[in-house]
Amino acid sequence: PALARAEEAPQENATTKPYVPPEVAGLHWAETFDGDVWSRWKASAHDKYNGKFSVELRKQEAFEGDLGLLVPDEARHYGAFAAIPALAGAPEVPFVLQYEVRFQEGLTCGGAYLKLFDSSAAPAGFQDDTRYVVMFGPDRCGGTNKVHFILQHRNPKTGKWEEKHFKEPPSVPHDNLSHLYGLVVNPDNSVEMLVDGETKASGSLLTSMEPPVNPPKEIDDPADKKPGDWVDEAKMDDPKASKPDDWDEDAPMLIPDPKESKPAGWLDDEPLQIPDPKSEKPEDWDDEEDGEWEAPMIANPACTVGCGKWEHPRIDNPEYKGKWHAPKIDNPEYKGVWRPRQIPNPDFFVDETPSVLPKIDSVGIDIWTMSKGILFDNIVVSTDVAKAKAFGDATFKPRRELELQQQPKPKTTFWDDPLAFASEPKALVSIGVTVLCLVLATAWCCFRGDSTPKPLTPEEKRALRKKRKEEAERQEREAGAKDAADGEGSSGAASSKEGAGQKDEANGKEPAEESNEGEGDDGDDSKEDKED
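Structure (tokenized):
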């Protein structure tokens, strides 16, 4: 779908232009991710690479239809590589690597670097432990925020390859725009690291790499050990010194000021506050409900000078000396800082032209990232600095200008330029709404009165409790009267029923039994039969 969209004829507008494949003549190798990309690139087959690159358009295009290699998902390992024409370093020939990367959704933790390697070092295919020659590009995670440049250099004595890191690499820009990262290794061993065409760091392969390309001529003798009687301390306690007899280590740092005395009128036994003698317990105070009543406290009028225990102010003790320590003197047994003796380095060599790089015939991307939306484009390997720069000027610079135009313009505030701010139509509306809100708010504050509920005073609280108590007593009286009335009615009915029974017995009749018979449908039917 991305290829189909890329082939559609785009319409140019103010901040975009139609994509035109760039001219790559004169470059050793260039990848613009046009055409059948996966005929040139292969995904790494190792199981760890659970992310799959895709060839896509940018989320916000500058050149409409321009494709790049996209990291579509976060929290994945990505691996892919492509073969390039073999390039072996030669005297007087520079080496240039440059490419574009855009962190479309930012970069929180992950890398976007390239590895250039010799395919003969990867018989099983490219993966994370494939020996490379140059690793270069941005990386950010935690405390790491730098553009890597790592050279793997072979020790001719041992045949081992060792990583050499550039000591002071530049940082990675903090935005979501495209950036052009460039590395130039010159024949004189000088190195330049560029971001957006500007040199951000420079140095030499002979002096700016850690560990150094060329090992030291001598090394510490691993068999040499520090003698047991070796004295490392340059100073020692003076054995002739002793603590003076009048040195009191227990003397306090602060003492009471002897010049101060208790002021006249100071009352040691008087409290600072006393209960208010004018305060009385309210008549309606209920100890069970309100708790034990206590008079409010007031300042003790007797404490005009001071009350309570008087203490001297504290001052520095002129006799304080602290713990005694013997003075230090030069140690006559001192032999200096011990260092192991030096022996010739068996792996020593001198490479005066590390700029002549070993063979490179592949470019690989091996990254793990917690950020998606990383897009690679316009990768260039060249031996001509001027042509590589011209390619960047023709591809990156116009893209950069368009992307900057696409960024939201910062809004002019009143404090930046009052006249310019007031002249904008939207600003006039904002000013009018603000003024109206201020007028309405002022009017509301002035005329609304004070609607904030005030807390009840103690007298109001007592009155409320009294009212609630009276209401509870009234309800209790009414409930008692109702219960009494119900009791009298029940006993009267029972007496009437008993009297009726006695009367029936006197007349020779059987007392009527309480029954529900005759009620309901059967009773009604019997009554109708009698009437018939």
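The first helix runs from residue 2 to 7. DSSP finds seven helices and 27 strands in the chain.
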